[in-house]
Amino acid sequence: MTALSALFARDARIAIRVGGGAMMGVLFFLTVVTLVPFAIGPDLALLRRIGPAILWLGALLSSLLALDRLFANDHEDGSLDLILMARPPLELVVVTKALAHWVTTGLPLVVASPVLGLFLNLEPAALSATGLTLLIGTPALTFIGVIGAALATALRRGGLLLPVLVLPLTVPVLIFGVAATNAAVVGPVPFGAPFTILCALTLISSVIGPFAAAATLRYGME
Amino acid sequence: MALIDLANPTRFVALVERVLPWLVAATLIAFAFGLWGAYLAPDDYQQGATVKIMFIHVPNAWLSMFVWATMSAAALGTLVWRHPLADVAAKCAAPIGAAFTFLALATGSLWGRPMWGTYWVWDARLTSELVLFIMYLALIALWRTVDDPSRAGRAAAVLTLVGAINLPIIKFSVDWWNTLHQPASVFRVGGPAIDWSMLMPLLVMAIAFTLLFVTLHLAAMRNEIMRRRVRTLMLIQAERAA
Description:
The complex is a heterodimer.
Chain A: H1 2-16, H2 24-40, H3 44-65, H4 69-76, H5 79-85, H6 90-119, H7 124-154, H8 161-166, H9 171-185, H10 192-220
Chain B: H1 9-40, H2 54-79, H3 86-116, H4 124-145, H5 149-177, H6 196-241
Helix pairs in contact in B: 1-6, 2-3, 2-5, 2-6, 3-4, 3-5, 3-6, 4-5
């Protein structure tokens, strides 16, 4: 347990310090949301209607941004080999690294989403609904993303490949994230149905992602 | 002959050479029967002659999922049993599966134009088929990123299995998201909803396309084994020259 908490603290510290890129995702998120009105026009009524979808799409793309660093940096400086040989099971190590990654890159997106929601003319109910669904949904994006990060590291070059591999797998999270948000704001579906499925997706991916990523790292590093 | 005997590529290639002519003949006969039956099948009372697209469209859609199932079995072979030909099987199935998926999308699109009045609608089944197509292409891209086949094989195997778990979830979510496409009418509780005169040619066509897949897959596996041998020989030659 101490080894895992040390790993968590180490990953979080590296991400926050110079060159870590924890805030880069939020900056990207801000840029994407700023670009949308340029593309569709400054119509506040339209922005209010599609605002939750824009926030979700922006968060999805931003969460991809720092993914390739998840294992690649450790692989470059050799610490990944030590982690692979260490005593804690690799699956738990992957969970720990994914959580550290989510806290430093996913959580800032959730915190930033209400501010960006104001730009999109969202009402308070929609702001809190988007924040809540992102809080529940972004861990799923990270846990699906670790599979892509592990594949990219095992294959030595996958920076370009990573979004292509990860994005199709995130379709369900996007669907239920936006559906739950819209259900909370306009209905007619009750909020509970899509929201509980979103929770289920996060739980499923928290199991599948670490196992698949650990398998990839184990086979890929031989 | 057990599956483990086929681990020897030479023996496998010999077997393929022996059965391939028979498979080609069987495929041609099945297609002849299927197309003839499709030609004789009556027009639909609402859709007219365009319903005949179904005889191409539906088998392709079935196979687009069947091929992923085949690749998942091969992926288990790679990861669990380390069967040396499993990654060859998985690699060769991906482009064929992508082709079937593309054909299902293209024929469905051509069928949709006269029936729904548009080539594309964001309907649940079309959309999940499109996601499946993207995943096939991503898998092929993964294979093409790495030059060492066994390393790429294990990575692709993990992704294939993750896809096999995720594809039903994607299908379910997309169904939830939107539904316009007619629900499945062949495999359902209470027997098929289409008439026997149309079902019979459809089943024959499904068998024909499955035979086509097996034939193409075995031929592609043979070619891939040869390609890997050529690659190894060239590597040895390059080492000698150096």
